[in-house]
Every structure is written in structure tokens, then in C-alpha cells.
Amino acid sequence: MGVTRQKHAKKIMGFYKHNFQFREPFQVLLDGTFCQAALRNKIQIREQLPGYLDGAAQLCTTRCVIKELESLGKALYGAKLIAQRFQFRNCSHHKNPVSGSTCLLSMIEDGNPHHYFIATQDQDLSNKVKRKPGIPLLFIIQNTMVLDKPSPKSLAFVQKLQSNQLVPEYQKQSIVELKEKEGLVKQEGEKRRKRKRAGGPNPLSCLKKKKKKTQEGQEPSADKKKRRKRKRNRVKAEAMQSVQKNEGE
């Protein structure tokens, strides 16, 4: 397998994985034309396809495809044997089988919820598949299996999806301005300030501060009493000295 072809397939698989949520094991629906081309070009689908898709793959078909191959006789007997080895997926045509292409198209209706790949050499079926977004298409060319690039329908779908999800910068600024205009930003700030004031000081710390102030207030009062006592004692001493002096005279 060429390195360039492998890189090409890996890039396309990344597109479908990222934008359409394709996951292993990949569900590959094959019709009779793809099985016939694989037989003619000696391609081992079961062995080669998982390596090309870089992941586990479940090969499957429908009973309508088998019925169509049986109706075409011996020319496609080998293709029928190959298709019968794959898993069968239930379709809605149990009583009235339809052509393989019609059946496969019905399997990918409603947005391809089962994430099927379509493997076919039918050009008309390929064109109809490309009109639906998100459906990988496989075909055989020059003895190799090829994963077709995403169709314009798939690319347009992804572009539209991204444009609806992403918000441009100018719209983000408009949203901020509208919030400010409606006062939503101010209300949020007021709520934060209210929560901050609700805490308040610790009552125990307040009591400690009050005790400290009381003790500090008592110290000046005691010093004042001591000074008054000393002053009285000094006055008494001076009075005694004055009396003794008068008596001596």
C-alpha cells in the first residue's frame, strides 16, 4: 500500500471521525458490484480493508443484494459467494426484495444513524450517495481500494454546522454590552459584596479587644491614686516641719 494513498485515507477518516462521529468497528455495506470487482482484481477485502481504514471493520451486506446476485446467474456466482461470507444487516424488504442499490440507499436514510460506509462500483448509486452528507464512499480502481474524498454536500454540511456553533468576536462583545446595559454585571457585583459583608468579625476577638482596653484603662487610674497619696504625704510632712519650726522659736 502506497504511503501517499494511506495518508490520503487517514486524512479523510479524520474528517468523518471528527465531524460525523464515526467509530470502530467501521460498518461497511458492500454491494454485488464491489464484490465482483474485488474478485476480478484479486483483492482480499477482509484482510486489506481494516489496514487501509486504519481500524477494525465489519463487512456487511443485505439479503436484497444476495437475491440480486442470485438472479444474475452464473456470471456473478463468485461475487455471491464472497458477499455471503459477510454479516447480514436487516432491511425493510423481507417480503418484497428490491435491487441492491435501492436497498443500500434505504439503509442510509434519516442521516445514516448507523454510520455506514458504502462500497460499490455502481456509478448511479455513488452519485446518489454523494447527495447525502456524512456517508463515506469506497470503490476499487487500478487493483486497489480507494476511499473517496468528502462530497461537496458533506463539506457544506460541516461548514454550516460550524458557523452555527462558533460565535464571532464582534457578537461576543455585543453580548457583554447587552449584559452591562441590562444591569446583569452590576447585580453580580452586588451579590459578591453582600456575601463578603455577611461574614463579620469574630465575636470572641471583639471580647479580647475590650478586655485589653479595660486593663489599659485601669493602669492610668492606679498611677493617679499613687501620685495623690504621695502628694498628701508630702503636704503632711511639710506641715509637721512648719509646726516644729514654730515651736523652736
What features would you describe in this structure?
Involved in rRNA-processing and ribosome biogenesis. Residues 185-249 are annotated as: Disordered. It comes from Cyanoderma ruficeps. Its main location: nucleus. This is rRNA-processing protein UTP23 homolog. Helix 2 (32-40) crosses helix 5 (77-84) and helix 4 (63-71) packs antiparallel against helix 6 (100-107). This protein has eleven helices and six strands. A six-stranded mixed sheet has the order 3-2-1-4-5-6, sandwiched between helices. The model has no long low-confidence stretch (mean pLDDT 83). It starts with a helix and ends with a helix. The protein is α/β, with parallel strands linked by helices and 249 residues long. It has helices spanning 3-20, 32-40, 45-53, 63-71, 77-84, 100-107, 123-130, 152-165, 169-182, 184-197, 203-248; strands at 26-30, 57-61, 87-88, 116-119, 137-141, 144-147.
